[in-house]
Write a structure and sequence with these properties.
The chain is 60% helix and 0% strand. By secondary structure, it is mainly alpha-helical. It has one domain: lambda repressor-like DNA-binding domains (434 Repressor (Amino-terminal Domain)), CATH 1.10.260.
């Protein structure tokens, strides 16, 4: 029986949440990295790592960003998850191809 994925991965790399922060959110809020970090209660280096897409948005950071921007933390976590899953799928493709899909009897 053929398998049809419920939510196929996109062919393009989903945006890292740091890119959204860097390109859209902080400029719209007229916040510098230093001011945003101070407002979020984190170090400037921590925020810069996220903006440079070298660090992931954690649940704690998602809560901070949701409080700063309004809305919920889920959007930040979903963006991070989509980005991470896309990358992992490509990194693990050879290994995943060797793992059979088992079906319950």
């Amino acid at each position: 029986m053929p398998e049809y994925p419920a939510n196929p991965q996109p062919a393009w790399r989903p945006s890292h949440p740091g890119a959204l922060l860097r390109e859209d959110v902080l400029p719209a809020l007229r916040l510098t990295v230093t001011d945003a970090a101070r407002t979020l209660g984190i170090s400037r280096q921590t925020l810069h790592a996220i903006l440079a897409e070298r660090a992931a948005v954690t649940p704690a950071m998602a809560l901070r960003l949701a409080k700063l921007c309004g809305g919920g933390p889920e959007i930040w976590l979903r963006m991070q998850m989509a980005h991470d899953l896309w990358q992992a799928e490509r990194d693990l493709a050879p290994e995943l191809a060797r793992i059979p899909t088992l079906h319950a009897a």
